[in-house]
Amino acid sequence: MLNCTHDAAGEYAALQARGAAFLGTEHAIMAGAMSWVSERHLVSAISNAGGFGVIACGAMPPALLEAEIAATQAMTDKPFGVNLITMHPQLDELVQICLRAKVTHIVFAGGIPPGPAIRAAKDGGAKVVAFAPALVLAKRFVKSGVDALVIEGSEAGGHIGPVSLTVLAQEILPHIREVPVFVAGGLARGEAILGYLEMGAAGAQLGTRFAASVESIAHPNFKQAFLKANARDALPSVQIDERFPVIPVRGLVNEGTKRFMRHQAEVLKKFQNGELDKNAAQLEIEHFWAGALRRAVIDGDVENGSVMAGQSVGMVTSIQPVAEILADLRAQALAALVARAAKA
């Protein structure tokens, strides 16, 4: 058994070697960037435990991001990244702030990263990561100089695409070998991560389990909602009329999600009655969730706020320290390899 364990450890280390080397970490595990959650405390804890923390810049102005990076660097000397939203009006300035602070990795999310932003990041010495929702875009990003990709399935929490990780992995992993590819969406156990590593992934990105960790600053009510939830409770937001698109966001069903359905119906009725034009109606629909994530994460209003969570929420059974989560993932992967070797 000891030999099996040793061989399993070596095999697992070899499988995640490319991802760990790219991140500069012990574990080839990235943390998903979650607004209001992925800040200095959680990011530094993940990096200190051997994973790769990522600051969620979101809508932060440059000065606030600069302060958050400095505060994180005061809490860890390990590598971490910054997630920048491509539609941010000050994207170029945010990139420069990351470079001045010697941030090692910049993750572009929320759309196709502009070529000049990619070049600026790379010229400044940072490694660039981008999200690829389809094979054609994965190939395009590789050609544009992106250093690594994340493929995130619709099982993930927060803003999601329409395709599951199971399908994306089959579509993309066999064809993208030039850069490391990290898998994301619905991951909560080491056996699953192991399976994707064996398919050719370089590592994995997890968010939901870290959101409910000891070091997460999320309100206790937010974490308790995760503990009580099942996978089927984490559903995408629903659009009731194609004329008024709703960006799909996966979160726990609560009174807020039910009211959003009623709100859409009321706005649609006003539009049909001529009380609102199309633009005004669209804005009224979009404004419903303004500040809703902060209400849930920081204020603890999990009934009316937006409790973003992936379908892996059903596997969050306790509030663990980050280091324990990472150790569990590794132990589960090793146990799977040992069990396989015992059957051989």
Task: State the main characteristics.
TIM Barrel; disordered N terminus
Tell me the distance between the termini: 13 Å
Q: Which H/E pattern describes the elements? A: HHEHEHEHEHEHEEHEHEHHEEHHHH
Strand content: 5-15%
Main structural class: alpha/beta
> Could you give the count of β-strands?
11
Tell me about the biggest sheet?
A: 8 strands, parallel
Total domain count: 2
Which homologous superfamily in CATH is the superfamily of the largest domain?
Answer: Aldolase class I
Q: Helix content range of the residues, please?
A: 40-55%
Structural overview:
GO terms for molecular function: dioxygenase activity. Pfam families: NMO. The chain is α/β, with parallel strands linked by helices and 344 residues long. It has two domains: 2-218 and 317-343, Alpha-Beta Barrel (TIM Barrel), CATH 3.20.20; 230-308, no CATH class. It is 46% helix and 13% strand. Helix 6 links the parallel strand 4 and strand 5 (127-131). Helix 5 runs parallel beside helix 6. The protein is globular. It starts with a helix and ends with a helix.
Tell me the layout of helices and strands.
Layout: H1 2-15, H2 17-23, E1 29-31, H3 40-48, E2 53-56, H4 62-73, E3 80-85, H5 91-100, E4 105-109, H6 115-123, E5 127-131, H7 135-143, E6 148-152, E7 158-159, H8 165-172, E8 181-184, H9 190-199, E9 203-206, H10 208-211, H11 220-228, E10 234-236, E11 249-252, H12 255-272, H13 278-287, H14 292-297, H15 322-343
Parallel strand pairs: 1-9, 2-3, 3-4, 4-5, 5-6, 6-8, 8-9
Antiparallel strand pairs: 7-11, 10-11
Helix pairs in contact: 1-15, 3-4, 4-5, 5-6, 9-15, 12-13
GO molecular function: dioxygenase activity
Pfam families: NMO
Organism: Acidocella aquatica
